[in-house]
Design goal:
The structure is a homotetramer of 351-residue chains. Chain A has 351 residues and is α+β, with helices and mostly antiparallel strands. Chain A contains 7 helices and 18 strands. Chain A is globular and about 65 Å long. The interface between A and B is large, with 109 and 109 residues.
């Protein structure tokens, strides 16, 4: 309840700061008997890892995960699985010039006001680096959901700044550093990012996540709805400013005769609902969209104040993602996996 | 935790079905010593009440609230406040023709599959009627937040189907049945709704909610963020398919040099963040947008199946809101109040 | 989570004050499809009801339960079951003389200091009357556990003040007002109570509760252990000052070679563990003992202070139980049922 | 909710197995700004450490704690504090002979039945070694409670098997390996333990814990009472079979005129309540007693079964505590600190 745990029956407790000793999480509630290795988790961490292309932060973090507990002879024992990722590349000097100032649009300001103390090294706990434990925990959930229920969770980038990325094929998503489901648009994306980097600016993006083969009946009627929990985890992802399900904001101009998905004995005829009706999964694909803001750490000078309230000019040097949306896809997949895992366990409880 | 409770330190447990004996909630965690009467709560319930104009459902429910506990000599005692609303207008015959069929876009289908049993009377627990206890609890939170911290929470409709409603003045919101902040647009809205009613169709809407004078520092860095909790409650409101904060989905095409709100000794120069940075309130106004889908209960015939999986044609008669967005404003305000109340108490815990 | 709810997957939220409008609870998480009537619940409430013999409080409360929600056509729907008990016999004048003073050994003092306001009518929320909703919720859990798993939960009084009550037969428990499992000792108990009532004093008691046919494997290794949860609910019962499981405090002088229950292919040879090993149920009977203090509301004059801190003499008139232990048996059974119900659902979640 | 976390606002999530890579915990909810070093925590861990006298297990574990997060420049930042203790002395061969059999009185049996898989190395997660993270977390709570509210929490052994240990002085507790508050009795305790070790048997014990300067008003009226939470943590401590507060089981034979603590303007005249009235702290010393069973790991041969259900004879070799009660005092102190810490934060929330 103190704010760093997620989930009721599959609970993930996150800890760590960007440039502290280590980051990690404790997964509590993983069913016993599943084969689980560090490689299973490392695969997803590597998809999110920094430094894999020139379009993301050049910080070199191997993000190597170590399982500390909860596994015996290669299988989960039903007890907490603690995961540890050592911080290695700690060039904290890059941040020294901003430790007393607040970057416009950054959590510096709110952390300082909330806690009265702030770890400025690499953004401390507000760093997007803290999504790595989420991805690690999500890998465990993904594996279990896949093996037990055949659930498949995948995501892609559908828009980078002004460039819309038409969906072509899931097969393309792994072939480029943008998680774009379309080969044709890659040169345009690369040119856009190269220009942006020269400007020293950053840009927003839109991510889609889809879950297939989701059991019917996940979610509770009021408050603990599945859509509510999805919105919770997605809006809680760094830099997200909007979350929608199914038709999303387009539903505003839809009439009921268009929006309501007709049903036949062979299934639904459309999916404006995004797989959720009345807060409960319908068995259709769950489709989620995220709006991700441009990062606040940019080279362009901006007006701000320091911790004394005096006016200052802030310019963020160091190694930052010019588009945090680029690495967001595996994180969004992990978050959706964590929500579904929790709800599947809850559903099992009442059977 | 079994799904019908909201909040950690200010907990609301919701119960009831649309046409059962009664609906209500238990509020646990209201600080002692606040003056509280049924009139304080009734005021907000009346704003949400059905039957107040020809544009909403004609069901006649007085929605009279009764306080069962937690008050002594007019003041809160710090113990649970149970609120009861008797169901009075139970014309359940209107629903008889749909008890074995699933309305396209309605929770009928998922409830049936989840529970194997379903109260079909007026939608049972999936009815929007179950937002009344939320509004009642929100009234308590609103009052406390106003008295203790001067927080003001208000909302309005910014779009009804294709008609955008430019913000003109808060003063207009109470003068029309749409919660529209603009007098000029009312005739257009009324004409649109009258035509829609004749068609037997329904329409979506967009609602904005704003909280002013919010204390800085509400929300936790990871998972229990303020933005996450807002998204949770808002997406959990019946018919909502999208939630955004501040710039929302517009942030996708914004550059960091535009999105990041610059700060001066006199305050922020813009509010793209919507009052939340890194998941924590910044002291700026919190601004939230909701996309509300068209209701699925329409007179137009639609394809569907029945509980045996056979194809049927469904047409929903009875008394329904052609635009559930019209009555959503007070509910969205209540939900924001509940989230803020909970986070303010949490903040007090660590002081 | 603000303190008046119990259980994670079978959650009971309690509300009300002794002489307020009503008391009750919301049960959230009852599986769908169980036949449930008010009579099922009333049966247990009647076992706890005041006024059934001259040895308990003469307050006349019928404690009639009303189901407000969660049932459709006689079956649970899987949604919250709200239970309401109206308060009828409200002779609040009896308490007027103590509203500004603190009874030695009573919660008056702590409520006043905690909340700064106190409902003095009948003890307000500190009244043992508030165990009625717990008994009602326990009746639902008992029924489900019995039907689904064959679990049987029974209790009895094993000591009243200085009089030990040897266990003779479960059949006797319902034949006397003490829940004593022994017919021979009844005259002695009655004589003791009659003398005590004349003195205007009160006395302690010891209660045993036993659960049979409990599934193996309930409880988690660390923190959320089954023994911990049993201790939690039992110590939280009004007037309880001690809780033990199996050998209890006798284990202090036992050697390991005596205490550890040997196992054969036909089962355990003893049950010093009380059915729980390492916090997890072993399938043996769960055996729990409670020490219940004498009530603080006695006619004998006692030294105390008033709300101004001045010395006063306190004498409690009105209708009180001279031995609250007498009515504690059905409450303790209900509490054990609630704990087991919650853990059985949790166990099902991970299967 | 998955069972390995304790506390609502000061949450401790425990992980690890006796002979795995490491054990530890994540503390979530420690207020920001407190000076905290590893030495503060190590001090309490050393009090619980094995191998410090011939009367406890000879396993050599330095139990060195490492802080992984949540501290910046020597102060808590308000974010999760992850604590890690590497396992070093892993002589797992000692346990090979029991991996397929169940020790009478041990959690072997229930873990196997619950999870279908069991880490047999040193008892895996059922080992008393897993109390080390609890002690570490308790050290943080103790420090904060002391600095902020002057709360002092201390414990001692009051009985070892048949030998009662009269309280003489707190000063003696640290002078002997038994945490006995009495120098005179030490030779008798040592002789008893030496004889017991030769027999290869084990013995129970009784521990007292006392908290002084506890703020008035901690605990909620129903369910989340302070006494309930104390019982929860104490009964959840390995080997505990009974918990009592204040007069405890002696209250059974007390009359109300004796038990109820009279109050004067200068304070209470006795403390049969053990500092808690109606579930809420009264400001008096909180006094708790624990009954600790003899460990099940003894050299004496015992009847049991193996995982195939066949009869076997079990004899536990290896390094075990002949009286787990001896090292229980610092753990019980830590648990009381954790409960009080949580309730103090909750109290602050409502101020």
């Amino acid at each position: 309840m103190s704010g760093s745990s997620l989930g009721k029956l599959f609970t993930v407790s996150n800890f760590g700061e960007s440039h502290g000793t280590a980051i990690g999480c404790v997964i509590d509630g993983c069913p016993a008997g599943m084969v689980l290795t560090e490689a299973d988790i490392q695969f997803e961490l590597d998809r999110r890892k920094p430094g894999t292309s020139r379009h993301v932060t050049q910080r070199r973090e191997p993000d190597t995960v170590q399982i500390l507990s909860g596994i015996y002879e290669g299988k989960t024992t039903g007890t907490p699985i603690a995961l540890l990722i050592q911080n290695e590349d700690q060039r904290s000097k890059d941040y020294s010039n901003i430790s007393d100032s607040f970057r416009p649009g950054h959590a510096d300001f709110t952390y300082w006001n909330k806690f009265g103390i702030r770890d400025p090294r690499g953004g401390g706990r507000s760093s997007a680096r803290l999504t790595a434990p989420t991805v690690a925990a999500g890998a465990v959930a993904k594996k279990w959901l896949k093996e037990r229920y055949g659930v498949q969770i995948r995501g892609y980038m559908s828009q980078l700044g002004p460039i819309e990325i038409p969906f072509e094929s899931w097969d393309e998503v792994g072939n480029n550093p943008f998680f774009a489901p379309n080969a044709t648009v890659i040169p345009e994306l690369e040119a856009y990012m190269d220009a942006l980097r020269k400007e020293g600016d950053s840009i927003g993006a839109r991510i889609e996540v889809v879950a297939e083969n989701v059991p019917i009946g996940l979610g509770e009627p009021i408050y603990d709805r599945l859509d509510a929990d999805i919105a919770y985890v997605m809006m809680g992802l760094n830099a997200v400013k909007g979350v929608s399900i199914g038709a999303g904001f387009n539903c505003i101009t839809q009439k009921g005769s268009e929006h309501g998905d007709e049903i036949t004995p062979d299934g639904f005829l459309s999916n404006h609902a995004g797989g959720i009706l009345g807060g409960i999964s319908s068995g259709q694909d769950i489709t989620v969209s995220l709006a991700i803001k441009p990062t606040s750490s940019i080279r362009i000078e901006r007006q701000s104040i320091n911790t004394k309230g005096e006016p200052v000019t802030v310019q963020t040097l160091g190694r930052h993602d010019p588009c945090v949306g680029i690495r967001a896809t595996p994180i969004a997949e992990a978050l959706l996996a964590l929500v579904l895992m929790d709800h599947v366990l809850i559903q099992q409880a009442y059977k």
